Amino acid sequence: MEDYAPSRYKILEKIGEGVHGCVFKALDLHRKCPVAIKKVALKNKFGNISLNTLREIKTLQLSKSEYIINIIDVFPDVIGLSLVLEYMPETLYGKLKNEVSPLSRQQVRKFSLMMLKGIEYLHKLDIIHRDIKPANLLISENEILKIADFGLARLYFPEDEGRLYSPQVSTRWYRAPEILWGSQKYGPPVDMWASGCVIAEMLRGVPLFAGTTDIEQLALVIRTLGTPRLTEWPELTSLPDYNKIRFPNAVGMHWDNLFPSCTYAAEINLVSNLVVYNPKNRLTAEEATKHEYFQR
Q: Molecular function terms in GO for this entry (predicted)?
């Protein structure tokens, strides 16, 4: 932590605001280049040290990957801490909203692979991101995609089967069904479901499941994928919220009908192997990066 930090950076403009803090574009006067400064609270609303802030800093400091946002500096300020990050001019969310120049199929494939390689890197460190979504996928001027916003990231302990994780994570549209049914025993497959939803959104131009409440979100998933079969996902009945609500039986939609503009079968095949009810049956990040979709 450098005590000269505040004078080193000249704040230019506010570029974002999220649950975990505000983000500003600034100029690094030493290196003569733009940076992003994320101001985060050091204490939560109860006056305790914020675990989210500590997790985010620790995860960023641990991660040395070309597909993970790079942390340059950390310094204290009035409300808590400022994280100095490399500046990325765009988000995948912004690109998806740009109707004038929609993503090309080549860009979709390139961004999908970069995202999956970033997730693979995190999972090898036993880190689950828990908030993979287009707004947290940043894109550089030369179209390198990097995963950002680690406020919900957690170390995962695969050997500790009794460990519980909060079900209050990830943005609703990208939230895995086990979390929607209240599971507190989940792992890296929640990121793989989210990544499948992101790839589907890039291919379709619109979100795959855009629910306005958790119940509607689950109803959309069931209507699209069909009612989950207990033979394929026996653990479903043991999830905390499984018996709280009954949904009408659904056959599900054919994947081809969900992606009318896709002519390459491998695109749909990748999504259909990530957006799978049973977490054990989803592709791992490593398997996904080796999918035939990326072999062209």
A: ATP binding; cyclin-dependent protein serine/threonine kinase activity
pLDDT digits (tens, 9 = 90+) for 193-237: 999 999 999 999 999 999 999 999 999 999 999 999 999 999 999
Q: Which domain holds residue 262?
A: 90-294
Was 43 annotated as part of a binding site?
yes
Which amino acid, residue 117?
K
Catalytic center residues: 131
Q: Tokens 């204490």 correspond to what residue?
A: 43
Q: What is the residue type of 192?
A: M
214 token code pair = 């958790």
Identify the domain boundary among 86, 101, 124: 86
Number of domains the chain contains: 2
Among 59, 86, 113, which residue terminates a domain? 86
- Quickly state the pLDDT bin for 2 (edges 50, 70, 90): very low
Quick one: 28 and 157 in the same domain? no
Average pLDDT over the chain, rounded to whole? 90
Residue 81 inside a domain? The answer is yes
C-alpha distances in Å from residue 141, one per residue of 155, 170, 277:
31, 27, 36
Q: Under the phi-then-psi rule, with left for phi > 0, alpha for psi from -120 to 50, and beta for the rest, what region is 153?
A: beta
